[in-house]
Design goal:
Elements (H helix, E strand, L loop, with lengths): L12 E5 L2 E5 L2 E3 L7 E7 L3 H8 L2 E6 L6 H8 L14 E4 L2 E4 L4 E12 L3 E13 L9 H6 L1 H4 L10 E4 L5 E3 L19 E3 L1
Antiparallel strand pairs: 1-2, 1-5, 3-4, 4-9, 5-8, 6-7, 8-9, 10-11, 10-12
Length: about 200
């Protein structure tokens, strides 16, 4: 498969709602005006997708290049089903939804439509409000994150153990070999996208 889609310019964001949140990168402004429409794609396998189906209010936080890697690790490589993503993350409360403070700012969104495809839900939401939190940083693009992923996410393994790292999202699997038919549980790519460390 061609990796040309990696060249599509996207950012890195934290999407939160009641009960959790996750990292998203496929976000676009799709209308203009005082309350523009924003589209957000969320993997169907992601628990936050389930939360977003049960709620109409979402908060989208824009991450900067100086973001603490712990925020990306917590929200990008864990599930709220078995891990408290907010632990150790400084947050504020916006209408009952936790919002990470380590961001450039956030947008309060109201869901208007959901479009399903085989792997993702595309959410169309109207921006109701927003707030700038940091003007001293640049937006973290997905391309910049991929190039500097190891600076944000430290691969941790016990001495003598082999770790396989997903080159798309940074997920790590510990073991001498990847199981046959293995796919990344975070981003869904097959084992050919993993590097042995």
């Amino acid at each position: 498969m061609s990796k040309m889609y990696y060249r599509i310019s996207q950012g890195v964001y934290v999407l939160t709602t009641f009960g959790g949140g996750c990292i998203v990168d496929a976000v676009s402004q799709i209308s203009s005006g005082e309350n523009p429409l924003i589209s957000i794609a969320i993997m169907k396998e992601n628990y936050t997708n389930e939360l977003a189906h049960n709620n109409t209010k979402l908060i989208l936080s824009v991450l900067g290049k100086k973001v603490d890697g712990k925020l990306i690790e917590n929200f990008g490589y864990h599930s709220m089903k078995d891990f408290n993503k907010f632990e150790g993350i400084e947050t504020m409360d916006v209408d009952g939804i936790k919002v990470p403070l380590d961001s450039l700012g956030y947008m309060e969104l109201e869901v208007e439509e959901r479009i399903e495809n085989e792997t993702h839900t595309l959410i169309i939401a109207r921006c109701q409000n927003g707030k700038t939190l940091n003007e001293d940083d640049e937006e973290l693009t997905y391309q910049f994150f991929r190039k500097h992923k190891e600076e944000y996410i430290k691969t941790k393994n016990e001495e003598g153990k082999t770790v396989w790292v997903c080159t798309v999202c940074g997920y790590t699997y510990e073991g001498e070999e990847l199981p046959e038919g293995f796919t990344c549980p975070v981003c869904g790519v097959d084992s050919s996208y993993f590097e042995k460390k």
